[in-house]
């Protein structure tokens, strides 16, 4: 039986497709509190669309572009409007965490943005300290964000394909559409 997050994720993907993936990853990139876990949605989307390259490419692109758009929005908001996203209750990032990842940027520069985007738990946090660095332009930040998000989405894609292939094997053994059976069994 699927958990409630996975069932919701499959329902969103079934209804809205890659647009749902884009929206959730853009919100995650913008540091907004998690409405639905992005990793769960991504893997559910891959399971829902299948493992063919043509089917998973829009899911992959939606996740990468969505995360980059969300992070770029934070970058621009901090740089142009002197916004402090950490002061909002919907942003689950403390000032101490921003200071910590800010030291990463001070030490390694833009590669730290890409590296932090490839690691769950720190994704997007470098948007705030990087925006305060006058040497970094918005396009350069977006490029570094895109690279890290592509690595992250690639890892999630591998997990999604493994899960989808596992569901396919189980489905063949059971002789039924496993995804539909799991969705109807979910609370």
From TrEMBL:
The transmembrane residues are: 6-29, 41-65, 141-167
> Where in or outside the cell is it found?
Cell membrane
Enumerate the UniProt keywords alphabetically: Cell membrane, Membrane, Transmembrane, Transmembrane helix
- For whether the record's keyword set contains Cell membrane, the answer is yes
Keyword check for Membrane, yes or no.
yes
Membrane topology is: Multi-pass membrane protein
Q: Name one GO cellular component term.
A: plasma membrane
Its name, as the record gives it, is VTT domain-containing protein
